[in-house]
Amino acid sequence: MPETTKLETIYSAVEETAALVGAPCSRAKVWPAMDTFGRWFEDAHIVFGMGTGKRHLGELAFDFAVPTAAGDPYELAVTGGLLDKVDHPVTRLLPEITERYTVDTYGVDYGVVGGFKKAYAFFPLAEPASMKTLVDLPSIPPALAAHAESFAEAGLDGKVSAVAVDFASRTWNVYISGLSPEYTRPDAVTAALRAMGLPAPSERMLEFIGTSFAMYPTFGWDTTRIERVCFSTRSSDPMLLPSRIEPAIAEFARDMPTVHGGEPIHVYAGAVARDEEFFKLASHYQKTTQVSDRVRPAG
Hints:
This protein is α+β, with helices and mostly antiparallel strands. About 30% of the residues lie in helices and about 25% in strands. The protein contains ten helices and ten strands.
């Protein structure tokens, strides 16, 4: 376990960053996550995130890596009192992935307001997963099979860098790295989103998507429809396009604390949902020598 002073420093950074987005931060809400996962914080990626969408307002995402040797993040969260144990396929998907694939590391998305939300399984960059094999997992929801062929036709199969499960909302994501410039052209991506049942993006969103290298659709658990799609890119520039559009993102990129030194690392995302579009920003507070560049820098 890192020294108490180390955890206190991280908690102070969480508190400071939460204030930037107007998220109420309390030790009673955040410290249980540190009690459960803090023993791995000494050498963990720690990322703070925010968004301008309705579901992100007044919330700060406190995200961190967890080594696979620690075990299933869901089970750790249950043991730590962060989640109630339930009998649902949502709790079985990541263990099935770990049994059948090489998993590089786990990740946790913890909201300072909403608590434990999401767990990730990251595949090694040299060994991305295929949607064609993921659909065979017993607990995989039906949505992937419904869309796998269209993703393959777009050249996106064999590019899955991670799978995430949101226990709070019972949704899940497939993270796809390596989007081609052809896929992110305005006409091509508009057609692709419409085929997914999503609205055409605005001009400013299309401009941002043109810089992106990765995307992650969000699926529901008991339906085949895609709820939203996020496109992302990495940059050290605190004034990339979303910051020029959304003052809250610019303030976050400029003022967020960091301990890693060197250039800042910001991962910007633009989301197209059924009822809105919005931008998100995830900024590294702490990185390690094992950090994986899973999202290519903006060109």
